[in-house]
Each structure stands twice: as C-alpha cells, then as structure tokens.
Amino acid sequence: MTRRTTDHTARTAEPAPRPTAAAKPVRWAAEAVAAAPGAVRPHLDHSPQSLWRVDRMIEELRREGSPYPAVADALRGLGSYAGEVIVRQTGAEWWGSAGDHWVRTPDGRLWEPLDESRRCFAGHGSLRLLCRDAMRGAGR
C-alpha cells in the first residue's frame, strides 16, 4: 500500500487579504485604467512616474472646461489609481469610513488621493507630488 501525502510547507504563501476598505478604491482605479485612452493605458503601470500622465489627464479635463459633475467619477478613479501607486510603492493600506477613503502609509500618516484629484482638477494639486511626499515619508 502506497500512502500519498501532501507537503503543505512547500506551498507558496498566499498574500494576505487586503483590507475591505481597499475594495472600492481598487475597483475605481481599475475602471480608470480601463477607461484611459489606448495610447495612455500601457503607461499606467502603477509606477510613480505614471502619475505624470495622470496629472496631465486631469489638467486636460480642466482645460476642456468639463463641469465637475461630468468628471467626478473619472477623478475618483484617477485619485484611487494614485492611491494604489502609493499602496504598492510603500506598503501602505487603504482606510475607509463613512464613504471616505484614505491611504495610511507605514509611518502612520494618512493621505487623501481622492481629494487630491479634485484639487488637481481645480488647479491646486498634483497626484505625482502627493505620491512623492508619501514615498519620502515612508523612507523610500
């Protein structure tokens, strides 16, 4: 009689589940990438450099004179994308409460990429600079 055993130690560990607060922002970020123009989409690789393009996309929406209600979902998605860049680059995690979402970096600071996307649209912010500051604080 041959006995089959399974070596459970040989399995690769599955990544820890993401906090439930991440569910919506991750979905919004994916939708923003899918909705991006075809020439831009390959450059949205969740790198800090990709946020140059995101800032330019928001600037273009503003220059076109788009009313805020018409672009609110796009801004939410682009802000979520920037938050995902911070999460992936620093080991941060999404936090949420009462419909608001923030990113908490390992140093304990909270960042508001969704609000920053709205500030960008108003001409007073930069997702690229927000990410740079978050990474600097996280020791990167």
What does the model show?
The structure is a single chain. By secondary structure, the chain is mainly alpha-helical. The chain is 50% helix and 9% strand. It has five helices and three strands; from the N terminus they run H-H-H-E-E-E-H-H. The longest helix is centred in the middle third of the chain and has 23 residues, at 68-90.
Label this structure with key terms:
140 residues, mainly alpha, 3-stranded antiparallel β-sheet, 3 strands, 50% helix, 9% strand
What is the structure about, briefly put?
The chain is mainly alpha-helical and 140 residues long.
Tell me the layout of helices and strands.
Blueprint (H helix, E strand, L loop, with lengths): L22 H13 L14 H14 L4 H23 L2 E5 L2 E5 L5 E2 L1 H9 L5 H11 L3
Antiparallel strand pairs: 1-2, 2-3
Helix pairs in contact: 1-3, 2-3, 3-4, 3-5
What is the number of strand segments?
3
Major beta-sheet overview: 3 strands, antiparallel
Arrangement of strands in the largest sheet: 1-2-3
Helix content, binned percent: 40-55%
The rough form would be described as globular
The amount of beta strand, in percent, is: 5-15%
Computed structural class: mainly alpha
Query: Which sequence of SSEs, written as H and E, runs from N to C?
Result: HHHEEEHH
Provide the gyration radius in Å.
18 Å
Mean pLDDT across every amino acid position = 87
Q: Which runs of at least 5 residues are low in confidence (pLDDT < 50)?
A: 1-12
Structure annotation, total helices: 5
Distance between the termini: 57 Å
